[in-house]
Amino acid sequence: TYDLPEWLITMYPQAYDDVQQCMAQGEEGYILRALPAGNGDTTNSYIASNSATPATSTSHSSSTSNINSNSNSNRNSNASESSSISSPIEPNSTSNTTSHVARLIILAPSPAGLLYGAFHLLRHLGTGQPLDQLTAISRPANRLRMIDHWDNADGSIERGYAGQSFLYENNAFTRDWDRLHDYARLLASAGFNALSINNVNVHATETLFITDAFLPDVAEVANILRKYAIRLYVSVNFAAPIEAGGLSTADPLDEAVRRWWQEAVADVYRYVPDFGGFVVKADSENRPGPFTYGRDHADGANMLAVALEPYGGGVIWRCFVYNCKQDWRDRTTDRARAAYDHFQPLDGKFAHNVMLQIKNGPLDFQVREPVSPLFGAMKQTHQLLEFQITQEYTGQQRHLCYLVPQWKEILDFDTAVGDRFAPVKQIANGSIWQREWNGIAAVGNTGIDGNWTGHLLAQANWYGLGRLAWEPDLSAEEIAREWATLVFGQDAQVVDMIISMLMDSLPIYENYTSPLGVGWMVNPNHHYGPNVDGYEYSPWGTYHYADHAGIGVDRTIATGTGYTAQYEPVNRDRYDSLESCPDELLLFFHHVPYTHVLHSGKTVIQHIYDTHFQGAEQAARLCQRWQTLEGRMAPGLHTQVAARLAEQAEHAKEWRDVINSYFQRKSGIADVHGRVIY
Ligand code: GCW
Taking each helix axis from N to C terminus, what angle separates 604-627 and 492-512, rounded to the nearest 10 degrees? Predict the structure, then answer.
């Protein structure tokens, strides 16, 4: 029960109900309400905060003050104090927002909730929706909504396509705190609440981030993020006890090593009392890890978990573990199997503050992959879903590729675990097994470029990930509409065209790149542009096995690598059988002749030709579609996108011709339409 003052009830009759509902929303939830004028009120707008747990730390009070400065509505002198509904809030006696609305109420159990409520209001206004009858109740579906930076201390960004890092240069922090402040506000506005600030490949300088050499800078970053309710995480080097501590081992069961980590963690919390925890890439792509000492990944993760536990910190341990020194002649080793094979047997062995971070697919963020079978396979382990916003394999922000539809498909995929409807989104958000540590992490796509993301329209991916992590049931179109309206305003012709271009872009990209789920036909190392055999005779486990007769990877139980058996029976059977395997994943699961007839009625080879001709034409049409918007937006915005689309159209032709020529030469089968193939 709440003791609400009379004056509040008079002007806000549903306050009791709202407060009750609001408290049920959890820490970060909020209620937004526009109340009509009436009851003879002379006051205009209010922002009310009900603090169930009164804010005590500076972090919380500064969040409150930021809301005030952002929403521009409550500038009373107590702005830095968290206000409570049981004490009247000074009304703001300035201008009326609309003639029908007397007040705007944002109600939240915490300052973070007020922040998200304020951004909701700004989004509402920014998308041109009327204030009258605004009511919204919202809470995030996922506890952790995180961006992972792959920024290096030298200023480069691994897989970054938007310029250098704004966090680091020359092996030091840039200390561009203004930019960081803008970035923190940007993060909160899209609903993110966690940030990992350095590459998971932790090199020499970054290994020292958790030492006195860098902790003052790390603390300054945390101070800025805290104003926007964002918790800071750092990627750590598993071999730090050796490289930073001078020990002779990093064995997770060695007492001196365990003590070293405990002391390191204690140091970190002295600087950053609300530090989130560590992100770890171990035994992966030549990074150190517990395997060196004959230990398993539970031993490694739990050692860090024990050190972080007293402070409420967590370990985010990545499952991207596979053999990157594979012999391409060996057809029994299958990289797709690796994460499941390594981690599934460890279910139940991880400490409660360990979250396994699992990439959405079994390989590596290809344009088309099945969902990782690890989702749902570890019933006693906290799990985080990892997406890649930065477009490493999807056009590197030179091509338009709106990824939200792909992420939606993954979130909605039914793992069928436990013989029931069990979509990935319910595993990621922990609701299936009532897991409190849960969420979505994604590799960011920002850099120092003025528009943050290189390709202006790639902002929609960044924004979309934040919105989906908050509310996975939003549609890809709704998110596209929100983003386009917030950026370009309310010109319907502009907004509708941008939405349709965004929505078409992933299928277009898939059309002119690698076909039917096979993946990887890219140039080695930088991963841009077509190279069908670029990874075919390499140790990275990324093959398509194309010869004169056929193509694809046999991952079936009877004759292949047995990968399909990692899925629950309904998905296992669907993928394992040539008859029921969906066309778009056919070559991921099966090796077939070029003459194999798809469900679509086309042969595999004709499908390859048709989609590649079509994709290149569609890419060219994207330029024409964008051209129709000339003069309807600031010229600078129009030209920068036009330039990228022109490059994409040229590059799509290159993809078309390389792929079609390769397969015509291999198969000796002509295109039924007799088009030009080289
Ligand atoms: O996709 C691959 C990238 C690497 C990356 C790795 C990972 C940070 O090519 O650049 O390393 O995945 O996720 O760890």
Answer: 150
